[in-house]
From TrEMBL:
It is an enzyme of class 4 (lyase). The keyword DNA damage applies. SMART domains: ENDO3c (SM00478). One of its GO terms (molecular function) is class I DNA-(apurinic or apyrimidinic site) endonuclease activity. GO terms for biological process: base-excision repair; nucleotide-excision repair. Residues 99-263 form the HhH-GPD domain. The lineage of its organism: Archaea, Nitrososphaerota. Keywords: DNA damage, DNA repair, Glycosidase, Hydrolase, Lyase, Multifunctional enzyme. CDD domains: ENDO3c (cd00056). This is DNA-(apurinic or apyrimidinic site) lyase.
Amino acid sequence: MKDNFEVNIDDTINSGQVFLWKKFDSKWYGINGKEILILEDKLDIKSKNIHNFFRFDDDFQKIKKQLSKDDIMKKAIKNFPGMRILRQDPFQCYISFIVSSNSNIPNIQTRLQKLSRKFGEKRTIDDKELFLFPKPEKLANASITDITKCGLGYRSKYVKKAAIAVSEGTIDFSSLKKQDYQEARDSLCQVFGIGKKVADCILLFSLDKLEAVPLDRWVLRILQKYYSKEFQISTKTITEKTYDELHDKIVEHFGKYAGYGQQFLFKNERESFDKKWLG
DNA sequence: ACCTGACCTCGTCT
DNA sequence: AAGACGAGGTCAG
């Protein structure tokens, strides 16, 4: 029996992994692909969807214990002990992070909301109008002009091409899940608009690759601030090469659940700067 | 191989 | 109130 009470829903949703969530009164309403999830203060872990989404199949205590290699990480875990990594719908996750590049959370959220409203199916639940995430075919057939209307800017062509790759079967998420981390990442990086960072987000948040560690501006800043000796960080900008070198060092230090670790550090640091989450 | 600049858009700050 | 700034990167040269 897993510790349902230990999950902190607010911290989990507001940790930059999901964007299509909104709180009405005390309930969270969220879109996960073609599902709508509604969360109250207690999670119904008997629900297959909830069990899967919150990764109750992970041994969370063991993961936290394995990650606790140093004081910085211990403190981050202690501050947000109920934050989990979610297992998202892969296509939604894939598009979400393609759209995230060179942007911020409020902007990402707006873009995804507009995309869903324009291209997703409408559902009415509890008097609320919600839109499912668009299907791959729908985005693949959309015009660049219409996608651009959702505020994606130069990312519009990334989204269209990426959606085509999925609808044509060039990208197949169930195969990627079966591949190992490196192999799956290489496949994702073939897609126009996906670099290593975005690939790592997709792998960690939807394809069960817990050793994926997205190295973004924040994580870099965190590593420079607290781990500069540990990981011998010299450069300020991430290049193709330094990305992989750093990643290897991180996995070596934190182990195979390093992705969870990244999430704790990210959440902890951003909270200390009082950055905005979902609005 | 590496490095640098450009890039759409929008919320936020001044 | 208008204008500048920068944000969970990626691509092209």
